[in-house]
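Troubleshooting entry. The earlier prediction with tryptophan gave an output that would not parse, so I re-checked the input for stray whitespace and re-submitted. Clean input:
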Amino acid sequence: LYSYWMKMILYRIVFQLMQTVPLFDTAQPGCRLPALKTKGYIRDGDIIIGGIFPVHFSEALPESSFTKLPESIHCGELQYRYYRWLHGMVFAIEEINQNRKLLPNITLGFRIYDSCFLVQRATEGTIWLVTGHEEPIPNYRCQKQSPLAAILGDGPSHTSIPIARLLGIYSYPQISYASSAVSLSDKNEFPSFFRNIPSDDFQAMGLARLVMYFGWTWVGLLAEDTDYGQGIQIVKEEIVKAGGCIAFSEKFPAVFSKKVVNYIIQLIKRSSANAIVVFTNEPTFLPYMGEISKQNISGKVWISSEAWTISFVLSQKEYLEILSGTIGIMNRKGVIPGFQEYLYSVYPSKFPTDIFIKEFWEKAFDCKWLEGNSDLTASNDTTTKSKLCTGEEKLNELNNAFFDGSNLQYTYNVYTAVYTVAHALHDMYTCNPGWGPFVNRTCADILDFEPWQLLYYVKNVHFTNSDGMEVFFDKNGNPLPVYDILNWHISSKNTLEIVKVGSLDFSAPKGQDLIINESAIMWNGGHTQIPRSVCSESCLPGYRKAVHPGQPICCFDCVPCSIGEISNETDATECLKCPDDHWSNEKQDKCIPKTIEFLSFEEPMGAALLAITISCASITAIVLCIFVKYRDTPIVKANNRELSYLLLLAIMLSFLCSLIFIGEPRTETCMLRQSAFGIIFALCVSCVLAKTIMVVIAFNATKPNSKLKKWVGPKLSRCIVLAGTLIQFIICIVWLTSSPPFPEQNMKSQTGMIIIQCNEASTIAFWFVLGYMGILAIVSFIVAFLARNLPDSFNDAKFITFSMLVFVTVWLVFIPAYLSTRGKYMVAVEIFAILASSAGLLACIFFPKCYIILLRPEENTKEHLIGKNKIDHRKKLLLLSSGEKHEEMMSETFYTLSMEE
Ligand code: TRP
């Protein structure tokens, strides 16, 4: 209780003191902070709206040694464009004051402060506004003044933030017309901050979209090192997300530094990235622009963030060449009816309290006022100006950025911001007592309200602007994100001109949000073709990208796809394998069906083999005819005529059986091929074997009392032939029934081809057939070899030996050749072996006989056969040299025996 009373007493004393002592006017020197006098542009009214504008550029502070009172903060040159913003506010307030419907009977006044892009000045101005006094003291406001409703400003985010922190303490509504930094959306940190410029997340996304739209995948990023520059982080993320790569990403300090400028210029020069996104405020980037044009860095596309898309440098001729072609994002422009006329009426006589107007006048008309300079800036070149300003100079003759009433983005925002405050005040003004929004349904007093009471109304404001735009704030205090895309052209008058080339509306449905009129764009150097900015040129179809490990994905080599693989699009990351029955074409961008291969009748090799086969078969037929015709001549009769016919027939068949090997393999032909070949050849060799055995038996039967005599005759030979063939036949039947050969498509063994071939199904069976044939051949070879020196001018042993030699050789050569070839050549080798071995048989066994039959008919006699035999015998026969008589007789017997009858 005691402490409560103590507190109450203390409060009373303080309260009384505040009521009675005019604190500011009589403040003792010791109570006062030695703040500098702050001056703004003031117009009185019932309610005051504060405004903070960066009317001047900043200027680097001279370093203070603190040996005397530090100099006041310097501002740079007055900027026409920003001065126009200020007049947007003045214009709106005048308009509202004349408006009978909006806030009738209430006059709005204003207090405007120039922040010069400087945080110090922005805070100072805020305190000035809040205090309402020339000597700003925090946390105090004189009651006698009209209430401060809200503060508009500032432009740059980095100055708006300290303002927002201060105003947040007192809950003064703050509406910024240009500060777009993402961080300002945070309602916890900045509870009383609003803006009518969209937040930068949208702008950043838009910049990334723009970059990707033009196919720039190798991008440089520059940003100022302030809250505003943080937006570049989102640009970066979005570009990377969309598959682009960052060539470099640098931040530069808001304060000019020669070293950093040089570093960044070198970086830009060295980099192969042609597209550079610059996320910065205008004054920060100016030194870089100067250096870029000085060093003539051309051929780059500058992508500008909204803060410098419309830039002061547009009027500077020297930047023209280098920066033309710049493309950037800008806020939607609006229309302020009557503003253009208003601008041409800004005379010093009409605005006597405007502390900037004299400086503006001096700059615009290049003259000097008599009574001294404007207080804010000390222009150094006053001495050079000879003309005196009269205040009557003609504004209509001027044409600078101040008078550009047709491109109003921020000015329009300022204008709407004033209206927003006015509407909020109006809502407060029209509050129904008993239905108010505050505790106990009370309303606020329009002439004496608390800042937080207005904050309530600002938050909930919703009205339609004079040009039909709806105005309200979302839950973060932001408006809808809608942008224009602007491009810097060189006009016919050789000046820079800003042309709208597209729009970006995040409230539009996807796909319609980014609209760009490409034909309207003029790139650096006056080109119409989109400049390229890539790390590696894209890979053509048929190639794939090979990224170097540890390097950005946009830097890669193009490697051709391997055989059988394709890539059908540019910049493929992977090659695709063609399906089994397809193959890559030469360019490797398409899969084409594989060529089908088999030995056909049409192709030269097939046709040639066919011709050989036919002619060989015909020759065999002719030989057969000759034999039939001369069947009664001794040479035919000798040594088993029947066998000779059979052999000839078999040889003919074996020639013909090579025909089954030509042509597309089918189930039947596959089954027929090897077995027909096997059986026919077994027949051939059996015949030969039978012949040889017959020779041997016949010869041995000539010996007196030989028991072999009864074996001589066709019976035995028939048996041999039958048995020899039958075994092969059985082998084949087993093969065909157990696992018959079948046709198959072989896609693997040869690149780019489908080989249609017969799969033997059982290789064992195949080699069995061949092996059996081999055994037969070798047996007959051996037998024939042993019998080769028998008295034989009419027996076949010698020829048979020879033919078997040919036969065996052919097939021995065949095996490696067969195994080492593929596809149709394999078949051709087999056919060739068939033809060669059959031809060997035909030629060795039958041609000598035909020769005698046709050309030496005189030798075709029994006598000659025996006689010739005698001579031969004398010469060569060692075995049977016991006596001529015996010999002659033996020959005679042999001859008769070997005759069929
Ligand atoms: N959007 C900028 C920021 O948040 C401010 C800005 C935009 C600006 N355009 C401007 C500031 C022109 C000065 C001049 O920082």
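This one parsed fine. The chain has 25 helices and 27 strands.
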